[in-house]
Structures are given as structure tokens and as C-alpha cells.
Design a protein that fits this description.
Number of strands: 6
CATH topology of the largest domain: SMI1/KNR4-like
InterPro entries: Knr4/Smi1-like_dom (IPR018958), Knr4/Smi1-like_sf (IPR037883)
Number of helices: 6
Organism: Micromonospora humidisoli
CATH architecture of the largest domain: 3-Layer(aba) Sandwich
Number of domains: 2
Distance between the termini: 37 Å
Strand order of the largest sheet: 3-4-5-6
Protein name: SMI1/KNR4 family protein
Radius of gyration: 20 Å
Structural class: alpha+beta
Largest sheet: 4 strands, antiparallel
Helix content: 25-40%
Length: 223
């Protein structure tokens, strides 16, 4: 596997930041086209020691050579920061990552929806009273949340960014799809799905990041 070269990223981000239309790119107002400082080799060793997992190579090299978070897809990459001696990612949805379970294999390679197989939402016409219908609704949604929102669905996933409306994208850290990017569309009832390039190839971190960067450059290009 060819090691990614991130040396072009700072210059490209700087040029984007200097473009008059840069502020119109979705999410740019949040990340401001800036990356936080990369992590040192010692810091990365500490991170992986605490997590008891080896991060996928492409993302690991980004943390070491480009930055620990900031400018990136949608509202930006969740930054990896240390607080009171412990490392964690920060951002809207970063807490969906179960740090203690990153080493447990994410078992999926194809899209899945945890809600599949659950009973349909109750129909008011099937109940004799509003009270009975309300009770059935409460039971339905309680069961839905237990099945759909359990952290068990996302073991081995490292959430890296949010797209708004509670939609997020994550990197598979452990399991058969290790190193690939997935979408969490639970908020729209869509479950989890792998992300693909235009030719159908599964997206790894490097291609996922560079696709966003190239799209941003095309968006602000004159004409």
C-alpha cells in the first residue's frame, strides 16, 4: 500500500482560504480552512496505547503529517485532543465513538439498517382509544431506540465529521472493512452504509479527504 503524501494539503487549504468565494463552501465557516497542528510520534504512540488499537495507516499519517483535525469534509474533521491526560475526539457527534470499543471489529461490509425487521409504527385506526394508541406508540419508539441507537451498532467505528441534521461519517478502525469510510444515516432512518468513489470503489480516508478538497477547489474556481 502506497503511503499517502500530505505535503500539498497546507498550500491548497491556504489558497482556498484566500479565495473570495471560500466562505460559500458548505461548512467553511466552522473550520475556516485551518488544520490544527499534527501530532508528534510520541503523542500518537500515547493515543494508540490508550485506545489499545492501531489506527488505519492513511488516517494515522494524516494525524502525523497534516493535522489532528480542522479543515475537512462538511463541518470539518473532529480534532483529536488531550484533556487531563486522556485523548478523545471533539465535535458534534464525536461522542458517538465508543473509545473503549474501537478495537472490537465492526462486522459489516455491506449497508445495513438496525431498524429492519422491527414492527411498523402503530396505526391509530387499529386502536379503540387515543390512550391505547399513545401507549402503543410509546412502546414502539422505546423499542426502536433500544435497537437502533445502541452503541453496539457502531463498535469499531471512529466518527470523524458531521454533515448537519445529525448525519455523520466515520472511519472503520477494526473489522473486515478496516480503513474504509462509512456514513451513519440513522437520523434519516437510513442505517449505515459504506462510502464509494465514482467508480464504485470503497473510499478510504485519503481518497475521502481529497475528494472533498478537490470538490471545494472546483466550487470556488473562477467561472
Amino acid at each position: 500500500m502506497t503511503r499517502p503524501d500530505w505535503s500539498d494539503i497546507p498550500g491548497r487549504l491556504a489558497r482556498l482560504a484566500a479565495t473570495p468565494a471560500a466562505g460559500t463552501v458548505f461548512g467553511a465557516g466552522d473550520h475556516g480552512w485551518e488544520l490544527e497542528a499534527p501530532l508528534t510520534a510520541d503523542e500518537l504512540t500515547e493515543v494508540q496505547g490508550q485506545l489499545r488499537v492501531e489506527l488505519p495507516d492513511e488516517y494515522l499519517s494524516f494525524l502525523r503529517e497534516a493535522g489532528r483535525g480542522g479543515a475537512g469534509p462538511a463541518y470539518g474533521l473532529f480534532p483529536l485532543r488531550r484533556h487531563d491526560g486522556r485523548w478523545r475526539w471533539e465535535g458534534d457527534g464525536a461522542d458517538l465513538t465508543t473509545l473503549a470499543a474501537l478495537g472490537r471489529p465492526f462486522p459489516h461490509v455491506e449497508a445495513f439498517n438496525p431498524a429492519d425487521g422491527l414492527p411498523a409504527e402503530p396505526d391509530e385506526d387499529d386502536y379503540d382509544s387515543p390512550e391505547a394508541f399513545a401507549t402503543a406508540q410509546d412502546a414502539h419508539w422505546e423499542r426502536y431506540e433500544q435497537v437502533v441507537y445502541t452503541p453496539e451498532n457502531s463498535v469499531g467505528l471512529l466518527y470523524l465529521c458531521h454533515l448537519g441534521c445529525a448525519l455523520r461519517e466515520a472511519l472503520v478502525v477494526s473489522g473486515p472493512a478496516r480503513g474504509r469510510m462509512w456514513a451513519d444515516d440513522i437520523a434519516e432512518g437510513g442505517g449505515f452504509r459504506p462510502l464509494h468513489d465514482d467508480d464504485g470503489t470503497p473510499l478510504g480516508f485519503a481518497r475521502w479527504y481529497r475528494r472533498w478538497l478537490a470538490a471545494a477547489e472546483r466550487e470556488v474556481a473562477p467561472g
